[in-house]
Design a protein that fits this description.
Elements lengths: L1 E3 L6 E4 L10 E4 L2 H7 L4 E7 L3 E4 L4 E6 L8 E6 L5 E5 L1 H5 L2 E5 L9 E5 L15 E2 L13
Parallel strand pairs: 3-10, 10-11
Antiparallel strand pairs: 1-2, 2-5, 3-4, 4-9, 6-7, 7-8, 8-9
Length: about 150
């Protein structure tokens, strides 16, 4: 699976034969992701760093977001030329050898398996069918629709 930023300065390749054979995506409704995505939620792919190749990484700019709902600093990388979000890194994901890719850079993406921070979703947003839903972070209290 290949993707690029808006201007093409950053190219991301994901090499995973099982990418579309199971749910892999992640939808985040935290307010920081809403701001970063400039949308009502962010769509991500949490995947092993070893399966990702980024070319043009000299065009990435880092913003260290210390105001996350998890309380951890999130390293957010954007294309310095067009501003397109590319990836994020968090301590838990990095320790597990994973990176968080922004799925908007890809033409086709896997179905989401997880939704997080549903306690801050926009009231008109409905959770996706078939996802595991959490009020806050992964592994925390499950979200039950009212």
């Amino acid at each position: 699976m290949d993707g690029t930023c808006n201007c093409g300065a950053v190219h991301v390749r994901v090499s995973d034969d099982e990418l579309f054979s199971k749910r892999r995506g992640h939808i985040c409704h935290c307010t920081n992701c809403q701001k970063t995505a400039s949308s009502s939620f962010a769509t991500n792919l949490i995947i092993e760093t070893s399966k990702v190749t980024i070319t043009g990484d000299e065009n990435l700019t880092l913003y260290e977001d210390g105001n996350s709902r998890s309380g951890r600093t999130v390293k957010r990388y954007f294309c310095r030329r067009c501003g397109n979000p590319i990836k994020s890194e968090t301590e838990p994901a990095s320790q597990a050898g994973k990176v968080i890719l922004k799925t908007g850079i890809f033409d086709k993406v896997p179905k989401p398996e997880l939704e997080t921070f549903l306690d801050t979703k926009q009231e008109w947003v409905r959770p996706a069918d078939g996802t595991t839903k959490f009020r806050l972070a992964v592994g925390g209290e499950k979200y039950e629709e009212q």
